[in-house]
Amino acid sequence: MADFRALLAPGVVRFERLLPGPIERVWAYLTEPEKRARWLAGGEMELRVGGRVELRFRHGDLSPIAAPTPERFTANAEGSSVAGTVTACDPPRRLAFTWGEGGDRWSEVTFELEAAGDGVRLTVTHRRLGDDPAVWANVAGGWHTHLAILEDRLDGRVPQPFFAAFEPIEAAYLERFGSRWVDAAADGAPEALRIVRRFDVAPQVVFDALTVPEAMRVWWTEQTTFDIDLRVGGRWTIERREGDQTFVAEGEYLEVEPPTWLRYTFGMPQFSPNRDTISVEIAPEGAGCVVVFEQSGVDIASELRELAPGEPSASEAGWQQGFDLMEAAWR
After folding, report:
1. Measured distance CA(235)–CA(265) in Å, rounded
2. Residues 6+ apart with CB under 8 A from 122
3. Cβ(239)–Cβ(248) under 8 Å?
4. Which of 139, 169, 185 is the last residue of a domain?
5. Strand, helix or coil at 64?
6. Rounded-to-integer distance, Cα 156 and Cα 175, Å
7. pLDDT in tens, 290-326
8. Which of 74-78, 145-149, 179-183 is most confident?
9. Per residue in 7-44, pLDDT tens?
10. Number of neighbouring beta carbons within 10 Å of residue 241
11. Whether 16 contacts 122, CB under 8 Å
12. Residue 174 shares a structural domain with residue 284
């Protein structure tokens, strides 16, 4: 199963899939009604900025395998539709359109295609999804399931019934997203530190600045030593000297997927025996990238809970300073 790292930032979900090429074939499955109806929704689309979009969904027709429709979706069993307007169209590489219109409830979907060897890297980003994790999970589960059907169609496989696949995937996303924001909101105190930054450099440059000693020096002092074993299960240690004091940070790599994903434990044993967990997602965006940094665990949660409303934490100030130094070095 494809990964579940869909949430780029609150209200924004993003997926990346490597599909069989050529790029013109994938573009056709995005834009031609008959092909699009086989994995997402039919309906006409005017391929020009300002053009009209109508998506007509018939989830029961996406697979030849018969399956019942869950009760909560029976109102749309005969189909539903979404209207929008094309906001970007650069065949066969970029397509964007609004999703739903009227009032403040519209969102926007962007498809970006890039040749990758014999395949095509498809990136789907859905923005303006509000502040409800249940909505994020519903949308993420939908795209996850639809993209799996697209992959099956392009590979010549018979896809599974939409709802049979969708419901457990939606539940998994809700657990992932909800545990971060819903539980924390119950008492008004955040459980994790979250920082979103955009840089005008490629994702690999940021990934190296977090993992390669020579590149890490752009945001660490000269009096710092690095011991990096960059692999799942590998250990890392950073020692920084200030006068006659030495500060040590250490941990273990849990997930390493250059240049877009890094997850590791983080501890400073001279201050606490606990270990927090840090995840860093680095998503391409135009000529640069968006970095989503999150630190969770006992120590950071305790630090955040002691803050007055709106007061920044010392940890956030420290990480932001590091990101500022990176950015200054890359100008």
Report:
1. 9
2. 16, 17, 18, 19, 26, 111, 112, 113, 147
3. yes
4. 185
5. coil
6. 32
7. 998 999 888 898 888 888 777 888 999 999 999 999 9
8. 145-149
9. 777 788 889 899 999 999 999 999 999 999 999 999 99
10. 13
11. yes
12. no
Of 185, 211, 237, at which residue does a domain stop? Answer: 185
**Structural contact between residues 8 and 16, judged by C-beta atoms closer than 8 angstroms:** no
1 within domain boundaries: no
The reported pTM is 0.66
Please state the rounded mean pLDDT for residues 50-66: 94
**Number of domain units in the chain:** 2
Q: What are 174's two structure tokens?
A: 């809700």
Tell me, yes or no, whether 158 and 24 share the same domain.
Answer: yes
Same-domain status, 73 and 135: yes
Q: Give the confidence band of 287 by pLDDT, cuts at 50, 70, 90.
A: confident
Q: Which residues form the domain of 22?
A: 7-185
Q: What is the CATH number of the domain that holds 157?
A: 3.30.530.20
Give the integer Cα–Cα distance in Å for 66 and 60. 8
Calpha distance 2→144 (Å, rounded): 8
Q: State both tokens at 289.
A: 């990238």
